[in-house]
Amino acid sequence: MQKIISSASNEDLKQLARLVQNVRERRKSRQMVLEGIHLLEAALDVALVPTMVFVNEDAAQRSDVQALLARLPSASECIQVARGVFAKVTALSSAPEVLAICPRPEASKPQEDASRLLLEDIQDPGNLGTILRSAAAADVREVYLSKGCVDVFSPKVLRSGMGAHFALSIHEGADLAAELAAFTGRKLVTHLAGSTSLYGQDLSGPIALVLGNEGSGVSDALVSLSDVRVRIPMPGHAESLNVAMAATICLFERVRQLQC
């Protein structure tokens, strides 16, 4: 490990800060920033190679941090950063043990009949990360994001996803209409004015599940390409469900049917 960096004007730290703060920088460089031990472990588990790993001086001698650093490939540069400087780079209230710059994983070509999740203009990082976490847990690995979605590899979405990104094939900037039109399985869109209950649908075969923006929902163009508009029954007093909750309910209704 290199000597401790004690100045925020260090060029490597300045680049790290740009990646944390600027979506254009992340997309242009095809990089992401992983905050904390758990995310770095998850990336290493799928053989992603960090270009640089910054270690918080306060945590550098901890046994769990030392064990993590021992897993780093030889191509990864490891730098220790003074406590006061490290805290200035992260947006977290409490500075994590490590920050790592990693390449964004590339989506693989899916099987034609693989079930998939299509997300249109999801704006809240917490919602998107939670949806990805639910998709990974429900084993729906193909995820398509419209150009209007928040950056899926932003630090906030990565934290909320808790490593789910590395279990999924994430297709950014997708033409959702083209993807939906080409899909040969059942196409379901969640809709408050849906004519049929989610629980009356057969989800056991290949499905494409479409969810839309937190405020406006799914666009008419995508609704017109779907086979059915489904609603989640809400007998209580609520106008609608959070999009991440709705996605989780739909995904795990599919899991329930597959296990029956």
Automatic annotation (TrEMBL):
Keyword Transferase annotated: yes
InterPro entries: Alpha/beta_knot_MTases, MRM3-like_sub_bind, Ribosomal_eL30-like_sf, rRNA_Methyltransferase, SpoU_MeTrfase, SpoU_subst-bd, tRNA_m1G_MTases_N
Segments traversing the membrane: none
Domain RNA 2-O ribose methyltransferase substrate binding: 33-108
Keywords on record: Methyltransferase, Transferase
CDD domains in alphabetical order: SpoU-like_rRNA-MTase
Keyword presence, Transferase: yes
Any single Gene Ontology cellular-component annotation: cytoplasm
Swiss-Prot/TrEMBL GO biological process terms: methylation; RNA processing
Family note: Belongs to the class IV-like SAM-binding methyltransferase superfamily. RNA methyltransferase TrmH family.
Name recorded for this polypeptide: RNA methyltransferase
Organism of origin: Craterilacuibacter sinensis
